[in-house]
Write a structure and sequence with these properties.
The longest helix is centred in the last third of the chain and has 32 residues. β6, α10 and β7 form a beta-alpha-beta unit. With 319 residues, this protein is α/β, with parallel strands linked by helices. The protein contains 13 helices and eight strands.
């Protein structure tokens, strides 16, 4: 299943805040590079947590952070200014435009245009490799939290209706085609076992399906380990010995029971997600005590176990 996901040119990763979406995005990128392919992670959070994790300053252009792995911050305003540099001749004229109060007001008053330009930057980076005889590049978009992400993904259709056959309308049409190209663009949802994450995952999946952007898979992050069963707890409480206190055994048994309950709830959550979405679910184990790049590498190793044999570095193809 992971092979099928990584066969796409663009992967858009969604999820409720706090589910580990950024870490999972970086881990997916690491897996994509294992066959010699390149990967670009585009993070939408202006605080740039992944840039901090990799020890680099936030950049609106791709910067190298690991073997075959680039990272950039996706910003609507920066993307809009880059786009204007491409379509408007004359550097001095643009400099005057960017400094004008009218332009500043326009950017602030048109958040939808900034969102469109963010996706336009994704489209540009995907098209940038088209036709090049270079190692294939996978683009992973670490999208905003689910509510904002939905607004982001709906924007191209709204812009196409609003701007018609204008330059902006045509760009919106190109972006919309990219998002709906099931061969080259896939959406992945990340969730955890908490009830809010479960309900939001199901609701977002339904909303995405209604606009013909059904996710390719759900990644269940922080799956609690199942290292013992109820029989093991019973055996623990029945232990006897001169240095064993019944009170200590009972305390340990209660902790073990709560852990079994947590595992059972996670299993129910996975079953519910599968039933409600009808799609595949990938599980990532919980890794207490790990953070930063160490956690990214561990999750990448977990995901890599789902890979079948992949051929070495493929050349780029059109999106």
């Amino acid at each position: 299943m992971l092979n099928e996901i990584l066969a796409h040119r663009v992967l858009i990763v969604l999820g409720k805040g706090g589910v580990g979406k950024s870490t999972v995005s970086a881990a997916i990128a690491k897996v994509a590079t294992t066959s010699g392919d390149r990967a670009l992670v585009m993070e939408c959070d202006s605080r740039a947590p992944l840039a901090a994790t990799f020890g680099v300053a936030p950049s609106f252009a791709p910067i190298h952070v690991a073997h075959n792995l680039d990272l950039m911050t996706l910003d609507g305003r920066a993307a809009l200014e880059e786009y204007l540099r491409l379509v408007v001749p004359g550097g001095m004229l643009l400099k005057a435009v960017f400094a004008s109060r009218i332009y500043q007001f326009f950017v602030q008053a048109a958040p939808g245009l900034r969102e469109l330009m963010m996706l336009g930057k994704v489209y540009y980076e995907a098209e940038h490799d088209s036709g090049k005889e270079t190692a294939r590049r996978t683009i992973i978009v670490d999208a905003p939290a689910s509510g904002q992400a939905m607004s982001l993904l709906k924007m191209p259709t709204a812009a196409r209706s609003t701007f018609g056959d204008s330059i902006v309308g045509k760009e919106a049409s190109n972006i919309s085609k990219m998002l709906r190209d099931r061969r080259n663009c896939a959406i992945i949802q990340v969730k955890t076992a908490d009830s809010l994450s479960i309900s939001e995952t199901i609701e977002t999946h339904s909303q995405l399906s209604s606009i013909h952007l059904a996710p390719a898979a759900v990644i269940f992050n922080r799956m609690p380990p199942s290292e013992f069963e109820a029989a093991d707890i019973a055996a623990l409480t029945n232990r006897r010995g001169p240095h064993i206190r019944k009170k200590d055994l009972e305390h340990l048994a209660e902790l073990a029971k709560s852990e079994l309950t947590r595992v059972a709830q996670a299993r129910k959550a996975i079953a519910k997600i599968r039933t409600e979405t009808g799609g595949p679910v990938l599980e990532i184990p919980e890794h207490n005590g790990l953070s930063g790049i160490a956690l990214i590498d561990r999750i990448a190793a977990d995901l890599a176990r789902n890979l079948e044999h992949r051929p070495k570095s493929r050349t780029a193809h059109r999106i």
